[in-house]
């Protein structure tokens, strides 16, 4: 089993849900360059504000994440069907306009 990566297979350090968080915590972009400290500072300030925000509910947040991320990878009708099958509300007109209108 080879541990090499190729152009077709991204490095494990740039894939997965935690890749961005790991890079930010290290202060290093995926290309190996340092992230500007001013950018990191602003990011941390905004994330600290977000961390203090009252949440509306887990299932609402789950649906929002599914829509936001799913719209990048899944066709509108298929995502709508998947949402319905899972018991979530279908896509809202404003979500369709935002994520699927180009």
Total strands: the figure is 0
Gap between N and C termini, in Å?
42 Å
The low-confidence parts are 1-10
- Number of structurally distinct domains: 2
Return the structural class.
Answer: mainly alpha
Indicate the topology.
Blueprint: H1 19-26, H2 37-51, H3 58-73, H4 76-85, H5 93-100
List keywords for this structure.
single chain, mainly alpha, 2 domains, DUF4090 family protein, DUF4090
Summarize the structure in words:
The protein has 102 residues and is an all-alpha fold. The chain has two domains: 12-51, no CATH class; 58-100. The chain has five helices and no strands. The protein has helices spanning 19-26, 37-51, 58-73, 76-85, 93-100. The model is unreliable at 1-10 (pLDDT under 50). This is DUF4090 family protein.
Short description:
Pfam families: DUF4090 (PF13319). This is DUF4090 family protein. The chain is an all-alpha fold.
């Amino acid at each position: 089993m080879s541990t090499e990566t190729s152009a077709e297979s991204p490095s494990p350090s740039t894939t997965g849900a935690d890749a961005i968080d790991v890079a930010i915590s290290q202060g290093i972009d995926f290309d190996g360059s340092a992230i500007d400290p001013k950018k990191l500072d602003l990011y941390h300030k905004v994330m600290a504000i977000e961390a203090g925000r009252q949440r509306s509910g887990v299932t609402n947040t789950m649906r929002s994440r599914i829509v936001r991320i799913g719209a990048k990878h899944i066709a509108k009708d298929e995502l709508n069907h998947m949402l319905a099958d899972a018991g979530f509300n279908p896509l809202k007109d404003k979500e369709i306009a935002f994520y699927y209108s180009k």
